[in-house]
Amino acid sequence: MAEGRTRPEEPAPAGGPERTAVGEQYAKTRDIVVLTALLLVLVVSLAAVLVQSWPPPVTAPGGAARERPSGTGLLLWHAVLPRDTRLFLVVAAAGGLGSLIHVLRSLYEYVGNRRLRRSWLLMYALEPVVGAVLALVVYCVLRGGLTTTMASSGDINPYGVAAVAALVGMFSRQTVQKLVTVFDTLLAPAEQTTDRLTGDAGGKAPSAGQRGDDGSDPGPDR
Questions:
Q1: For residues 215 and 12, is the Cβ–Cβ distance under 8 A?
Q2: One pLDDT digit (tens) per residue for the chain, 222 residues
Q3: Separation of alpha carbons 77 and 97, rounded Å
Q4: pTM of this structure
Q5: Sign (positive/negative) of CA torsion 118, 124, 127, 129?
Q6: DSSP per position, 30-76
Q7: Is the separation of the CB atoms in 112 and 30 below 8 Å?
């Protein structure tokens, strides 16, 4: 199919929500190049933040001495950061990198199959932000003792924290769905809206390349 050409307009099912024509075109070469460059810059930047904010080894015997602030350089910024702040930066950077693994894999598969639409470029650009924020939320839940008990920051293994954050970012959709399931059990389930996409309410989501019962485009799901 020629670049930038759209498929014939598919009528929305009766009673289903109307879909706009925004982003219906397939992504052009310029869109793919700009998006790829942006994602690669994010990879390098987050990797640099992860390495530069990594907490130093804990060698002092006292807990107060363990968490003493130390200087570090973050890209073009130099700051003196306590160990807790360093761990937050490690979690955010690892979560963003985990999301970028998912995003880059999905991008080259959809570009290779020539099925990438412009309407999903925003998702690719924002997914690392979602992964970083979601990793911070999960880290705060763990540190808050809602699911487990963690000691002071001096006793936390940064490798384990970074691994969990990267997995949360890589599987952000599964993490959100699991949180929804947990809180639907603890609290009253949210009221279902009429314009919700197919598969969000517990039904089976359409597979890649197929539209849902409401005519929605499932988009990149790898």
A1: yes
A2: 444 444 444 445 545 556 666 677 888 999 999 999 999 999 999 999 999 888 887 665 554 445 566 667 666 777 778 888 889 999 999 999 999 999 999 999 999 888 899 888 999 999 999 999 999 999 988 887 654 555 566 678 889 999 999 999 999 888 888 888 877 787 777 676 655 565 444 444 444 445 554 444 555 654
A3: 20
A4: 0.71
A5: negative
A6: HHHHHHHHHHHHHHHHHHHHHHHTPPPP---SSHHHHT--EEEEETT
A7: no
